[in-house]
Amino acid sequence: MVQINGKKVLLKEAADTDIDELYFWKYEDKEQEAKKWNGPYITEEKISKAEYISHWAHEIYPDMPASLAILVDGKTIGYVGSYWVDKNTDWLDTGIVIYDKNYWNGGYGSEAYELWIDHIFQNTDLHRLGMSTWSGNRRMIKVAEKLGMKEEARIREARKVNGNYFDAVKMGILRREWDLTKN
């Protein structure tokens, strides 16, 4: 069972209660504040809880889950995740969502994302990790830059949010760059 302790957050494989909380935040919460920042240009259909649970069974490597729940003082506030863009070329993208807005701007997301990236680099032989966002999500870009990620691509006005166009942004970090930030 993967469990990573930070100063502010705990990353762990999601238990049933965590999945219930994450499902609520993703599909049932009336405000949907996180959706205004995390891919608001993506139309998502609500899926059943059983389908949602099955997503949590995915692994990126044997015994390495594709996602971990983020907890603060026992409360599930979001998750970190990863997905293959191209497994043949070891192209893995990562991400983070803090659903509970009471934990925004307090360093929880930065710490969780740093722990996640470090865990992946420590437990795989991947050469690089990436992430994708949109230019309107300045907080995510700032977190990625803080952790040493570099902008690798910007596709101009490729994302439409609330009738306005924004750039799609790809960022990434190489293992040797990550290692330098840890020394």
UniProtKB/TrEMBL annotation:
UniProt entry tagged with the keyword Transferase: yes
PROSITE patterns: GNAT
InterPro entries membership: Acyl_CoA_acyltransferase, GNAT_dom
Domain N-acetyltransferase positions: 9-176
Keywords for this protein: Transferase
Pfam families in alphabetical order: Acetyltransf_3
GO terms, molecular function: acyltransferase activity, transferring groups other than amino-acyl groups
SUPFAM superfamilies cross-referenced by the UniProt entry: Acyl-CoA N-acyltransferases (Nat) (SSF55729)
Keyword Transferase assigned: yes
PANTHER family (UniProt xref): N-ACETYLTRANSFERASE DOMAIN-CONTAINING PROTEIN, SPERMIDINE N(1)-ACETYLTRANSFERASE
Name of the molecule in the record: Protein N-acetyltransferase, RimJ/RimL family
The species this protein was found in: Halobacillus alkaliphilus
Biological classification of the source: Bacteria, Bacillati, Bacillota, Bacilli, Bacillales
